[in-house]
Description:
Elements: E1 2-6, E2 9-11, E3 17-24, E4 33-38, E5 44-50, E6 57-59, E7 67-72, E8 77-82, E9 91-99, E10 102-105, E11 109-113
Parallel strand pairs: 2-11
Antiparallel strand pairs: 1-3, 3-8, 4-5, 4-9, 5-6, 7-8, 9-10, 9-11
Amino acid sequence: VQLVESGGGLVQPGGSLRLSCAASGFTFSSYAMRWYRQAPGKGREWVALITSAGGSTNYADSVKGRFTISRDNAKNTVYLQMNSLQPEDTAVYFCSARVASHDYWGQGTQVTVSS
């Protein structure tokens, strides 16, 4: 299983970014996918989940209404569209897949929200 995140960067408050996570090594379309984040000095926080076919999503209260998780099973990719970004959204963002009862993680992509 390999997960590779991309799309992070520096953005001003109120701006937007779209993160991508390219998956390989497992049957992507059969598994729910999750995004997490870890801010400096804090623990890893769950952000969003999407079911295997993309029919259902769920979000942490801290990002609800601003972030949108989606997936393209033909491309084995999950996305996180982040709008109205705030400094408190600054973190390393990770995608994750639970395959055969094991949690797999990508290397993460840094998102920094600052003026």
